[in-house]
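Table S2 (text version). Query chain:
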Amino acid sequence: MLSGREIHRLCGAGSVAGVRLVLQRLTSTGLVHVHEAGNSLLYTLNRHHLAAPAVELLADLRTTFVAGLAAKLSNWLIPPIHASLFGAIARGDGDLDSEVDLLLIRPDEVAADNVLWEEQTADLLQYIVDQTGNAAQLYDLTRTELAAPDPTAEDWCDPTIRLYGPVLAALLKQDPLAAVGRSGQTERSAGFEEGLEAGQVLLVGAAHSD
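Corresponding structure-token output:
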């Protein structure tokens, strides 16, 4: 159970009063239970409510999205050396207008206009749009191009959600000629913030309820 102030802190947006107002509305629908603890009110998700499964699904949106991307990449006929998400999606502060930033590192021998590579990337970008409703921004580099100085490299590394291959920071330290691709594991975290107080409260309530 969490207090309204704790939920506001976890949401990272809006005002304490605004979050409490949303909690009151959710309590009135029965979706959220409220408990008195001294002078404080503590809130928890009512998992028996008909809408609770939908709330839990919303709370796990980013995990589901990342897993789907990783699964698609693992089936590519021309696999990338590395693939990751960065920017707003990785920070968890995206909204309806945010782009989904995707970094792909391909082998040097694969040209940018390779037909199969283009088909794979186009399919992945469309998948991102279909899944999120947000535009996708692709940064497509060869292994050698990655080693060249680039002012946006810091954005690629901090923070990042790895989808495929070695961690980007480790890849940047390697000799491009010695780098080889290998499948990676996804780094999951619950919640895909949409920038709306009501949505944020639902996500936090699902992730921290009893």
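Notes on Table S2: Confidence is low (pLDDT under 50) at residues 177-207. The beta strands are 2-3, 32-37, 40-45, 82-86, 100-106, 136-142, 160-164.
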